[in-house]
């Protein structure tokens, strides 16, 4: 038998390997740059041979909850302007005289056009960090993080994007739906739950509406947030009436409704399966980024200061805001290149017995890239977390001052939910360039690059979608 050959290491090499192992075991605290472990080290100083037990968990950014963008039907686009020809539903066939002809006739074709938009982010690591040999390479880790950031933005804007606030943004599926749904269908395809949870009957009604508009009731998905699913579960549990395998209402266990991993489950009203898809960004009408300090400034082109605002209550008989409520409003400024932290005017207390509206007056700071504002509302701010705030609307800059009137059309503790015929003839995501990465020149001691996605969501048949407004998403205390 041939004997194994062993390499003889010098004492110096053995010492270096032992030192590297010790650094990995204690997270770099052994003989590090400062002679001890600092509470916070950033940049290249934070990158050493990491603790083997924590590095993978600490450097892995999960995005499995951003499901909308990933699930959407994709189609490769060949141009920066994507188009589709659609057909109207036509009219109802009728009877006419033997051998005669109908009096009028017309075609029902229409061409829809969408501009493909960029979503991108710049990446940067110092030259020192890029040269270090790490368990998780700095540039690869940062590239992965930027990729997830773009996916998150695609997911959020794909749902709630609004080109009316920022022309660089595309319109999300809800904006496209509300803008393009014919007036005669608003009362049918938009259902206001007025703060109630979804019920089995809602699934049945929406499925029938989609089928009546020549949609496929066997290929339907309902998109919602986790809070709305939780409230729906509670409503189903207390109603004691379920539609099971299309056989009518009976009492007992909801066989036609079952939960699944990373999904709200499947509901089968009258034999048509509806897959419930949950997306983390549908928990509220739009996520509010309050991770920054309130009223902080962000580098966004020519203007870096958030607008200021006031909120004032006044009597209004048409308001549905609950009397006696205390509200806190949050206003973020939208720029061409980003969004500011939230400005928070003084809390507003409504009259104890008289219906009132709230007028938010926003004062522009004069920034050249200031395009619009997003407004959130939080009820009972002393007892509710900021995550309970609901997005009540967007408004474009109207001049030195811009106003938004809150009549309570958006209920507290609610979200939007929509059901759609999930086929690329109804909705698709046109992609000119998937994730693209290229290096850019840098004048400092760092490596820089840009990552971007070039695409747009495209809703072609809004009549094959049903929007539930003001769906109960969680219970406010």
Blueprint of the fold:
Blueprint: H1 11-25, H2 55-59, H3 67-71, E1 74-76, E2 81-87, E3 109-115, E4 117-126, H4 127-131, H5 138-160, H6 173-180, H7 186-189, E5 190-192, H8 200-212, E6 220-224, H9 226-239, E7 242-243, E8 249-250, E9 257-260, E10 263-267, E11 274-278, E12 308-315, E13 326-335, E14 348-349, E15 356-363, E16 370-379, E17 390-396, E18 401-406, E19 414-421, E20 427-440, E21 446-459, E22 465-472
Parallel strand pairs: 1-20, 5-22, 6-11
Antiparallel strand pairs: 2-3, 4-21, 6-19, 7-8, 9-10, 10-11, 12-15, 13-14, 13-16, 15-18, 16-17, 19-22, 20-21
Give the gist of this structure.
The protein is α+β, with helices and mostly antiparallel strands and 477 residues long. Helices cover 19% and strands 31% of the residues.
Distance between the termini: 78 Å
- CATH architecture identity of the largest domain: Alpha-Beta Complex
Specify the overall morphology: globular
What's the CATH topology name of the largest domain?
phage-related protein like fold
Mean pLDDT: 78
What is the CATH C level class of the largest domain, in words? Alpha Beta
- Residue ranges: pLDDT <50 for 5 or more in a row? 1-6, 27-35, 240-256, 258-263, 290-304
Q: What is the count of helical runs?
A: 9
Question: In order across it, which strands form the biggest sheet?
Answer: 5-22-19-6-11-10-9
Could you estimate the helical fraction of the residues in percent?
A: 10-25%
Estimated structural class: alpha+beta
């Amino acid at each position: 038998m041939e004997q194994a050959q062993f390499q003889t290491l010098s004492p110096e090499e053995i010492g270096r390997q032992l030192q590297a192992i010790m650094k990995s075991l204690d997270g770099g605290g052994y003989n590090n740059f400062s002679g001890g472990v600092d509470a916070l080290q950033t940049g290249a100083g934070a990158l050493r041979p990491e603790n083997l037990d924590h590095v993978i968990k600490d450097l892995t950014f999960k995005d499995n909850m951003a499901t909308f963008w990933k699930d959407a039907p994709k189609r490769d686009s060949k141009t920066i302007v994507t188009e589709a020809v659609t057909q109207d539903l036509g009219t109802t066939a009728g009877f006419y005289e033997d051998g005669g002809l109908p009096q009028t006739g017309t075609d029902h074709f229409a061409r829809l056009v969408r501009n493909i938009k960029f979503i991108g982010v710049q990446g940067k690591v110092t030259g020192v960090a890029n040269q270090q040999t790490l368990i998780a390479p700095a540039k690869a880790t940062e590239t992965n993080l930027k990729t997830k950031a773009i996916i998150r933005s695609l997911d959020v804007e794909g749902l709630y994007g609004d080109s009316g606030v920022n022309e660089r943004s595309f319109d999300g599926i809800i904006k496209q739906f509300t803008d393009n749904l014919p007036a005669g269908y608003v009362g049918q395809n938009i259902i206001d739950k007025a703060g109630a949870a979804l019920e089995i009957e809602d699934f049945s009604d929406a499925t029938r509406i989609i089928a009546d508009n020549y949609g496929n009731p066997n290929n339907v998905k309902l998109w919602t947030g986790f809070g709305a699913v939780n409230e729906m579960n509670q409503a189903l549990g207390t109603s004691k009436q379920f539609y099971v395998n299309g056989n009518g209402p009976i009492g007992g266990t909801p066989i036609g409704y079952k939960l699944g991993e990373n999904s709200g489950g499947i509901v089968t009203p009258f034999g048509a399966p509806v897959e419930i898809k949950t997306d983390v960004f549908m928990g509220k009408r739009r996520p509010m980024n309050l991770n920054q300090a309130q009223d902080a400034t962000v580098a966004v082109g020519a203007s870096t200061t958030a607008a200021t605002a006031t909120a004032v209550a006044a009597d209004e008989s048409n308001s549905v805001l609950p009397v006696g409520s205390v509200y806190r409003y949050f206003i973020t400024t939208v720029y061409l290149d980003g969004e500011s932290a939230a400005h928070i005017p003084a809390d507003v207390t409504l009259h104890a017995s008289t219906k009132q509206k709230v007028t938010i007056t926003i004062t522009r700071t004069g920034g050249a890239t200031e395009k619009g504002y997003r407004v959130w509302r939080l009820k009972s701010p002393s007892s509710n977390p900021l995550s309970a705030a609901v997005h009540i609307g967007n408004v474009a800059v109207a001049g030195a001052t811009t106003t938004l009137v809150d009549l309570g059309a958006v209920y507290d503790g609610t979200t939007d939910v929509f059901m759609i015929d999930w086929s690329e003839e109804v909705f698709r995501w046109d992609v000119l360039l998937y994730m693209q990465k290229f290096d850019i020149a840098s004048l400092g001691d760092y490596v820089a690059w840009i990552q971007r996605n070039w695409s747009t969501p495209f809703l072609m048949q809004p009549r094959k979608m049903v929007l539930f407004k003001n769906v109960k998403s969680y219970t406010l205390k």
